[in-house]
Amino acid sequence: MPNAYTAILIAAHNAAGTIGRAVRSALAEPEASEVIVIDDASTDGTKDAARAADDGSGRLKILVQPKNAGPSAARNRGIKESTAPWIGILDADDFFVPGRLKSLLTLADHADLIADDAGQVSESNIDGPRKSLLGEALSQPRQINFAEFASSNVTDPQRPRGELGFIKPLMRREFLDKHNIRYQEHMRLGEDYELYARALAFGARLYLAPTQGYVSVLRSNSLSGQHSEDDLHNLRDCDYALGKIPGLTPSDKTALRQHFLSVDCRLQWRLLIKAVKERNVGAAIHTFLRPLPVPYYLIKKLTEQFFMRTTKILKIPPTSNGKS
Question: What is the mean pLDDT of the chain?
Fold first, then answer.
């Protein structure tokens, strides 16, 4: 689509080691009319590393948050400070392969959110083979509805992981502004899920394409893998607000309920562990007084822990001479 340009927002906290790679990959895209780094009160050299990656085109802007407020607040500031008709998110750990934006924008006439599958690599082997985030079934662009989106984010050990909450779409600014959609600043886990789900509930057209060049770098110390009980509470309870948006179908509400319970399983497990450590019998019992399948999930997790501990206790190490 001619004249369809994009603001790339990069929220960063203590990302001095990776921010330069992210910035360079965004600036390499001609369709990126703005590349905005929002330094979320880093204590390392993040802003200096970002500045060192500037290509001199005048497209890079670096903002510094006065205090650490999380990725939602940082991205909202980036949205406010940008003007391009399309908004794209790039995590400070990740990077683009050249041509991604041009490929995605071919769908701009048909969509309000345009996303692609991500290729996942390990930080220790950045040039190694990339694993698909969503699996190999996606062969051509297709539209995703609310129920499919919400259901994909339900944890299910019986199927391969493919949560659409991890996608990084280009978003039409006009649609976000019309429905007053911004990131929920109290959320530090699942803030992407909440925003995409709310956009879909208000009628956004989300198109998902095979990978066009978003590379997701897996790191052992990634902030996305660190969350508190409050984070899980906020992720679970955002489904209450989403469920109140008019126009959701019965299928939409069923998918939303399944997501709510999936998160509640994880939350109640954390609360059960806490109660056991504190020897709080009442609190431990309370975790089982949740709707199904939460009690079954807790029993399964307890059973797994029992067998793991039993196996460890009964394991007999070999003697030094190899005889029993």
Answer: 92
